[in-house]
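tokens incoming
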């Protein structure tokens, strides 16, 4: 017997919904590393912060690697057996992160954690989408909930680290996973979703190539600045290895009867434009590194205060989600909703450009963080919807892993690395410009040491300001692109006069016939006259 639901028939529907929400609350914010916790992990283990950025990227790579095979895994195992086993694995992986001091172990654990997380997440997508019905409205509800939970989890990860230690939060998550496994074992049915399919159709070598491609890329993005980019043989070797791995992955897909990945959808117009807009979104999302430099390095916020600043995005996230629900319910065109999302991110960048001063107040964060939360949520929902619109399920699942890694890892990691490099270069230039004042008159030799901190902070502010200025210029270009893009509609709508002259309307065609008839009559009359 097959059962497409998750729970026994005797479980009331409200309880089923509550159990799904409870599962989402714990599983969806899971990560091998929480960015607010990185400074505490560095202090506790003595390892470089780059290792933990690498682990953060590894979680997303694991999620992307799982996406093409989650449906096959769903059809291979019974629901209860799979969910409880994966929840136990998630609990073990979190416990490993809590007890190890070796960053390489945390990186490997984060990769597996992302893979297991996506195996559970697919079970939550299908019933919720069936309940809501409309895919756009589902994205509005789902991404709003997930993005809010990510901010809340990030805040409590920092707060628990301050009150106790950074390991404690992982221990709490581990315990919650074990409790959830027990609850799901009680209420979930023990039947298959559909016809049982074998696992030997999965090409594990392709998964290995996929993981190695993006893990080598993650190493480049995470350690590029620390290793001095192209001057490091390790960075060069990692870049070459990533290229070779991706080449082997592509070649292998062309020789498989059942390929792990499909590149067919990347020839579609909406997919290519959607990936470009996700690249633009990644540019705005990467400003988080500049914001952290400003809050922690310049304003002197501790990690808990910095987490509270990120919580200020929640009102904007909620409003963007509610607007998306009504937008898709009314079936309105996507253009202006996407335009509003990029406009909000541009507004955030403009405010940050003018806010790069030492006197920036805590209350001044409310507006830019509201705009950032609104823009991030609106673009996550709308651009993802547009990118995957009108795709067949098999094609979408075979390529969504690449799209997921592109959206969450490659674009953000690429721009974070670029901003990091430019931030350092602009800072050096700014220090050179400020050195002109150390001439014995404006800043005397006796006061240089006392003013050195202020000089350094002004150099950081100047570098951030330059980068935000370039982002603002790029943002205006993105708005022009979005406003002129057709989003699947007719590219050019001729004015009535042109359509009339060219005979492309009913009236135009009728008048054209009348003109031809009249000219024939004139010709007929002119013949005898001549």
């Amino acid at each position: 017997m097959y059962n497409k639901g998750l729970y026994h028939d005797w479980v009331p529907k409200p309880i089923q919904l509550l159990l799904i929400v409870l599962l989402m609350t714990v599983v969806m914010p899971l990560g091998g590393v929480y960015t607010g916790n990185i400074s505490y992990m560095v202090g506790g283990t003595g390892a470089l912060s780059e290792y933990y950025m690498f682990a953060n990227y590894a979680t997303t790579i694991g999620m992307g690697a799982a996406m093409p095979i989650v449906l096959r895994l769903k059809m291979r195992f019974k629901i209860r057996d799979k969910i409880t086993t994966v929840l136990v694995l998630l609990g073990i992986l979190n416990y490993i992160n809590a007890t190890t001091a070796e960053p390489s172990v945390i990186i490997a654990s984060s990769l597996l954690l992302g893979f297991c997380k996506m195996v559970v997440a697919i079970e939550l997508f299908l019933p919720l989408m069936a309940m809501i019905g409309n895919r756009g409205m589902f994205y509005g509800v789902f991404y709003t909930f997930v993005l809010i939970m990510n901010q809340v989890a990030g805040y409590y990860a920092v707060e628990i680290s301050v009150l106790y230690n950074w390991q404690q939060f992982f221990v709490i998550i581990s315990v919650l996973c074990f409790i959830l496994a027990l609850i799901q074992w009680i209420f979930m049915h023990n039947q298959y979703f559909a016809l049982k399919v074998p696992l030997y159709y999965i090409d594990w070598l392709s998964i290995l190539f996929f993981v190695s491609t993006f893990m080598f890329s993650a190493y480049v993005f995470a350690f590029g600045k620390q290793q001095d980019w192209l001057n490091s043989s390790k960075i060069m070797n990692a870049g070459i290895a990533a290229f070779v791995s991706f080449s082997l992955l592509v070649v292998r897909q062309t020789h498989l009867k059942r390929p792990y990945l499909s590149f067919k959808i990347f020839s579609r117009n909406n997919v290519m434009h959607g990936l470009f807009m996700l690249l633009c979104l990644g540019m705005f999302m990467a400003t988080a590194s500049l914001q952290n430099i400003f809050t922690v390095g310049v304003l002197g916020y501790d990690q808990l205060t910095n987490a509270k600043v990120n919580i200020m995005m929640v009102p904007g996230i909620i409003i963007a989600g509610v607007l998306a629900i009504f937008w898709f319910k009314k079936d309105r065109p996507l253009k202006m909703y996407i335009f509003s999302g990029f406009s909000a991110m541009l507004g955030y960048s403009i405010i940050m450009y003018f806010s790069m001063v030492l006197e920036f107040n805590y209350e001044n964060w409310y507006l830019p963080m509201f705009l950032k939360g609104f823009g991030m949520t609106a673009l996550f929902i709308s651009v993802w919807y547009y990118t995957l619109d009108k795709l067949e399920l098999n094609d979408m699942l075979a390529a969504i892993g690449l799209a997921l890694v592109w959206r969450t890892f490659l674009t953000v990691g690429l721009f974070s690395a670029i901003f990091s490099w430019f931030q350092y270069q602009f800072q050096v230039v700014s220090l050179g410009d400020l050195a002109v004042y150390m001439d014995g008159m404006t800043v005397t030799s006796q006061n240089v040491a006392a003013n050195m901190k202020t000089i350094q902070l002004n150099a950081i502010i100047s570098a951030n300001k330059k980068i935000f200025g370039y982002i603002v210029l790029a943002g205006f270009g993105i708005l022009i692109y979005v406003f002129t893009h057709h989003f699947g509609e007719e590219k050019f709508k001729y004015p009535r006069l042109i359509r009339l002259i060219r005979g492309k309307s009913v009236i135009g065609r009728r008048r054209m016939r009348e003109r031809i008839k009249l000219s024939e009559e004139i010709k007929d009359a002119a013949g005898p006259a001549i």
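note: Confidence is low (pLDDT under 50) at residues 490-497, 518-530.
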